[in-house]
Design brief:
about 850 residues; alpha+beta; six-stranded mixed beta barrel; elongated; cell membrane; membrane; transmembrane helix
Amino acid sequence: MRLALRIARAELRGGLKGFRIFLLCLILGVAAIAAVGEVREAIKAGLASEGAVMLGGQAELEFTYRRATAEERGWIAEHAAQFSELVEMRSMASTADGAETALTQLKAVDGAWPLLGQAVLDPPVGGDALAGQGGTPGAFLDPVLADRLGLRVGDRFKIGGETFVLMARLLREPDAARAGMSFGARSVVALSALEGTPLLAPGTLYETKYRVLLPEGENIAALKAAALTRFQGAGMKWADETHAAPSVERFTDRLGSFLVLVGLAGLAVGGVGIFATVQAWIARKSATIATLRALGASGGTIRAVFLIQLAALTLLGVIAGLVLGAGAILAFSGLISAVMPVPIKVGLALRPLIEAALYGALTAAIFALWPLARLSELRAATLYRESETARRGLPPKGTLALIAGLTGALLLAAVLFSGLPVLTLSTLGGVAGALVLLAGAAVAIRKLARRLAPLSTRRPALHAALAAIGAPRSEATAVILALGLGLSVLSAVAQVQSGLRGAIAQELPREAPAFFLLDIPPPERDALVTRLMAQEGVSRVDTVPMLRGIVTEINGVEARKVAGEHWVLRGDRGVTFAETPREPLTEGEWWPQDYAGPPLVSVSAEEGKELGLKLGDRLTVNILGRDIIATITSFRDVDFSTMGIGFVLTFDPAAISGAPHNDLATVYAPAAAEAGLLRLMAKEFPTVTAVPVREALARVSEALGAIATAVSVAASVTLLTGFAVLLGAAAAGEDARAREAALLKVLGATRGLILRSFALRAVLLGAAAGAIAVAVGSLAGWAVLTQVMESTFRFDPLAALLVVAGGIVAVLLAGTLFALGPLAARPARVLRAAE
């Protein structure tokens, strides 16, 4: 080993010539993974350090559909140094004359709000401004909402039929980041202004939150335990500063982990460049290997020499990648903080650096070991005579076992770091499958080029291009592998985005309602339906009673211990009751008419299967602070994709019909009728909240677009790495191009013909890489849209053409950079050098 170290050190003195692509591929991949990981950790650190401000207190107790009783408020006051009460709901805001309307996320606050942080207002006024002017209560409005209604400070407007005066524009709320995505701009009013109004009537959909500051020395864990005991069965939900925004934290973890996996795809592309670099390096070092052989060096010593050099270069590349990734986050921390919807705390977290370094080292080892294993097969005599050629086929079994072990270690590390085994294995499996498809396609393209070359002799430029693509040392494989994977990811993202836009634009008018109407008082239901059906364009109005409940137990056991973090168990869910089924039954029987026995419930079949439920199981659902224990008698086929009325849980009427509740309705009408219907609702039914489905879908589409943009940015690193591999392949083939150009010149070819040949080669390879990427990306897009999102796949030809054009441009650019030298070289000098 000492001898190997000395030889390796001597070899490394020659510099990094020939290893620039190796290092660039490694640096880009490691930097991308490190940067994504650092952003993920910065968000988590920000949530931890600013949790109390985001929450609006050190702890929060939330009740659905109701406010705390006097006794419950007394308990909260007894255990808090200070607390604040606020109510949140959706409502309709409109101008005083009802000409303009908009959905708003209403927050009604008491005088103690905000306990922590400060609201930023324009003009800067105090919280007492919510008292209003001239007996009219005041309000703060999000600028988007104020502009939409055309309101200025001092103007009067209505929320839920109640008149308010705009006191200031709400620029920032300290506790807004925790709210996540909402379908209406924010408005803030005084809680006292809603007392006694229909907005807080029994059955109205609202949440009441009590934010708490703890006394000195009080322990959050102890208070949580006491609160859960005191409010057991009361429908209370607890949150505290240690997990102020669990949904944001969960989303950050999952998206961050997925983007790291996309970064691993970039490293896989870089692995192609590493493989090619090591293979070319060993070929260049044939004289050195022969000399070492002739001097008696064993195969193990020679392998050790090369392994030491590769280890040193890998270490250099990994360190440079970590510095680049972490440095970029630190350098642009201000910009990142500005665009993030939640507070972040940028710093150097150790975990993402370790993760990126491990991925980089394992990837380099996996792709370098394959060509390195051939060292033991090279013989000194044939190397001196330059008659040794690289043997095709697999490396020795020992090397294959080592590569397999390292690949397994990479998969295990990815699963452990992400904590999402299904997502990790499916994503990496997709990357591996794409690489296999691309490699197979590259082999097929080379064979096809060899067959077509003899048929194109009358077109010299095309003939030379096809012959070069089909040649034994063709760059086709490297080009298609390097470029194809990055283009495949971009193609998949483009097809998914196009599919979602198509679903919204084409399916929505046929299948989805125009509005959901919330908080319809039962006495007003018939009049509202009659009035709406009299409007031109309205084809259908469906109504059902609606309450909200929390599934707390399954067969007497805490629900989450039985079924995990299923979405049905996260927070409260809409529930209804019915005499007859609205959907077809898949299993079991419906209750008889006028049933008056113990509570029964019907569950949607798909969600019931996911929760592991069966007929006869007992569900405990907390509704308005009361536990309803109901037996499952049937499962229903509920199709939520139509966006019509659908409930996971439907009870028999006797179980919950006596509870205060309002109705929910869906209104089916064309887009042209929506504005008129909104004005009608604002004037005649101001307490009813109308949620435009198209507007809600647009918000969802924006969120999905932001995710797609993040994935596209991560995929661009893959493309950049692929382009680096293209440059490496073009540089490695420069001598071959020079010999090819010299021979063609001797045979009478002009520079223009040779240049056209090079360009045709680039166009054919780029088009092939792009076409294969479109096929792979379309397959991935189809799987995401149809299997995950349960939507319809529509092939987008424009996106496909852009991907193919991108592939052509990339290969043309890389090829052009290394085509001018061979064209300018004199044939005699090139051909004599090859003697």
